[in-house]
Amino acid sequence: MLDEVRILSQPFPGYGFEKSSLEYGLSEKPHLLVCQGTSTDMGAYYLGSGKLFVGRVALKRDLDLLLSYALKNDVKFIASLIGSGSDVDLTHGLRVLDEIARERQLNFRAAVISGEIDKEWLKGKLAEGADTWRLAPHPNLVDELSEVDVDESVRIVSQMGPEPVMKALDLDVDVIITGRSLDVGLIAALPLKLGFEPGLTYHMAKTLECGALSASPATCSDLQFASLRRDHFIVKPPNPLRKCTPLSCAVHSFYERSDPNREECPGGYLDVSDASYEQIDERTVKINGSKWVKTPYTIKLEGAKLVGNRTITVAGIRCPTIIGRIDAILNDVSDFVKHQSMESGIGVDDFQLMIRVYGKDGVMGELEPKKKAISHELCIIIDVLAKTQDLSNNICALTRSTLLHWGFPRRMTTAGNLAFPYSPSDIPVGKVYEFNVFHKMELDNPCEPFMMKILEFPGMNEVFE
Amino acid sequence: MIKKTLLTKLATVIRSKNAGPFKITLDIFFKNEENYRKVKGSGVITRETIAKLYNIPENRILGIYFVDKVHGIKITILRGPSSGSATDTDVYGAQQHAPLLALEIPLTY
Predict the structure, then answer these.
(1) Which of A91, A268, A337, A411 is the most buried (most CB within 10 A)?
(2) Do A262 and A271 touch, CB atoms closer than 8 A?
(3) Rounded distance, CA A331 to CA A348, Å?
(4) What's the whole-model pTM score?
């Protein structure tokens, strides 16, 4: 029975990392190289539109290095690709891997597991009475999911737990690629399968999932390494210029999490409140005391719906008279645009006009405590959302021309109120999406909705989308 | 004697970030344990003060955590617009920490 599992982690393919760290890391003879690359961080657009979030050039460079090293050194490679982790995204990732396989003459077999949820399957579950809960008490989220929400979503993905990956580990494959998945699940799968204690396993996975972010100096653009044993684990960044300290490891539980003591996962949660962190050499920390608490199995569902089409105009303002009167001016211009539009037969509900004011409250919006613009310069963004791109273009154009020429008391700049950096000044941005599904759903079989295929590379004879 | 000190003089990190697309989490890390204990003990970091600072109703404060082990404080609040939604101003929620910079902690000397 294996008494130790050694894991190397480099997240976010496309963000870049030090090649030398990969070489150092491989000298530790890891069993596994993991690359988690999916998230909701970048907003709902990527889930809704299917557009690639990272640059393809950087994505290929990173995957090329990781995949080649893993295959050449007989290290298992597990990665979640990419961005929102939908099937469109997964296919982007698979095509890049296929290109790499052809160019490097690498032949390998991969288990590919989709993280996208079939809508009919989901509606069937809801009809059967599966319990769902929204993950935040937010007005955009219904308490319990219904068919309507599923249909309104462009697509729905789910963070698969470690179980589908554990199944894939049974197969004769060199590589496992998933769509949207629980980041710690990718790392935890092998140790869990080998019977390692779940509290330690998940804590180790958590410490590794963002790469060297749990090291000092911290960054996710560099690798992290851990050795998991039966009663503890150690963490040590491969890059000799970084080190782990008890503090660097412990504070990682704060990053991007609402609760610093608990990490909710399918089937349970990790409790690190009693974990202990010990510096055992200059760069290595030993951790134990982590606890896993079982809960009924649920999966997290993420879905985005289309809310409209956007056009923006960016413009600068330098005149203090305009700046001193900006709120009233923008209100009056908005009113004018709305009235003019009504006269053209455009309903007031057909579009949303927002004018962002940077130099005043552009960054914080409603949360900004400083209410008055005292800057010598403002940047305003006319931001129109409408049912069609054509309508948003039109409303934006009208707002832009109106604001440029708007007259008001004590106006000095009677030739024009705005400095446009660009011609064309109006920029059609495209579709806008919002998360409408962000719910937990109870699930009996952790693998049920996550379809798996075996693909030979090079190949791509069969694709997901 | 009680002297008011800016939080910025006691903390090394004051940051904000999304915790999922519907929540923003604020983290405060301190130079040393002493500073952390002073701030924790001052009783300034409460739902009431944070709600006032951010001009939001108290029910939008989802949690306040004091973690002695890392001398860190975490405050999680419910977002207004969700991440990437039409009226969102900060997709990653990374620049919403500024009101904390004005926080003053009364310290007893």
Answers:
(1) A337
(2) yes
(3) 15
(4) 0.94
